Amino acid sequence: MTLDQNWFTERCKEAGSAFSLQIKRKLHDEQTPFQHIEIYETEKFGNLMTIDGFVMLTTRDNFVYHEMMSHPVLYSHPRPRRVVIIGGGDCGTLREVLKHPEVESVVQVDIDERVTRLSEQYFPELCESNADPRAELRFGDGIQWVKDAEPGSVDVIIVDSTDPIGPAEGLFSGPFYKDCLRVLGSDGLLGQQSESPLYHTQSIIRPMHDEMRKAGFLDTLTLHFPQASYPSGWWTATIAAKDMPVTFLREEACENKPFATQYYNDAIHRACAATPEFLRRALLD
Ligand code: SAM
């Protein structure tokens, strides 16, 4: 990350590219026991949160990411009642999950309470459902939480984590996926942010499919969507299904969803699952 004449720049070294936002001022700077969190006010993207110099979210475009991390996987499960979010401390995914009336409980496990406290302060709109009686906010290591959870006790696990470095590294590994499989009940689904299709197909997406299948998941599928403030402007979520085809969709419920969204709808659900040719080939090889 560099700050040059009021421009925040995130460099993506492996792709030889960078993304910049014009900054009005820095609002907060804090080194927690886990990571370095910064909050900026930008000229055109609202507030910006970075962790260790990487963009986590902006006010302007986080809606795409949070909707795509939650609604596709929830409408792909026949009856999602018990949901767990690993990471997600900004609470944007939690807010979307709680829009589903059939969801009875959501446990969110983020390793760093400061992310949530700062989100409450600088992204209050994302935290507006935190007091919902169905939500439980826990602070601790998501890897350990899944290890300790009862077999078959969860319908949907959503991994909304930082990149696979530091505390999030183990969330992209075979042992973690094995624990997720054990904790999921029948029809269980795991949805995970899986980085850029343009930059990370070989380094992250393909290994993720391999590890999920090796762990015992029956089917896997990568969804893609635009995300202006992330490297390449194009992002993915990968869904792994315990024991059914991952392309299942509760069509009628999805077409008549009882809540508003800004990006997701039933047509987007079908469209985001259409695999581009380079990705299809990479996943077959
Ligand atoms: N949308 C973001 C992205 O893709 O860049 C991710 C946002 S969310 C803020 C990521 C969260 O993952 C952070 O709050 C971080 O504390 C959390 N996290 C990282 N490793 C974790 C772990 N092992 N257990 C639980 N939470 C973790």
TrEMBL record:
Keywords assigned:
Polyamine biosynthesis, Spermidine biosynthesis, Transferase
Molecular function GO labels: spermidine synthase activity
List each copy of the PABS domain by range. Answer: 5-242
Q: Does the keyword Metal-binding apply?
A: no
Enzyme active site: D160
A Gene Ontology BP annotation from the UniProt entry = spermidine biosynthetic process
Q: What Pfam families does the record point to? A: Spermine_synt_N (PF17284), Spermine_synth (PF01564)
- The enzyme's main class, written as a single word, is transferase
> Which amino acid positions bind S-methyl-5'-thioadenosine, per UniProt?
Q35, D110, D141, G142, P167
Determine if Transferase is one of this entry's keywords: yes
Q: Which InterPro entries match?
A: PABS, PABS_CS, SAM-dependent_MTases_sf, Spermi_synthase, Spermidine_synt_N, Spermidine_synt_N_sf
At which positions is spermidine bound?
Answer: H66, D90, D160, S161, T162, D163
- This entry's Enzyme Commission designation comes to 2.5.1.16
Q: Name one GO cellular component term.
A: cytosol
Instruction: Write down the superkingdom of origin.
Output: Bacteria
The record's annotation in NCBIfam families points to: PRK00811.1 (NF002010), speE (TIGR00417)
Protein name as it appears in the record: Polyamine aminopropyltransferase
Instruction: Record the organism.
Output: Acidihalobacter ferrooxydans
The record lists the lineage as:
Bacteria, Pseudomonadati, Pseudomonadota, Gammaproteobacteria, Chromatiales
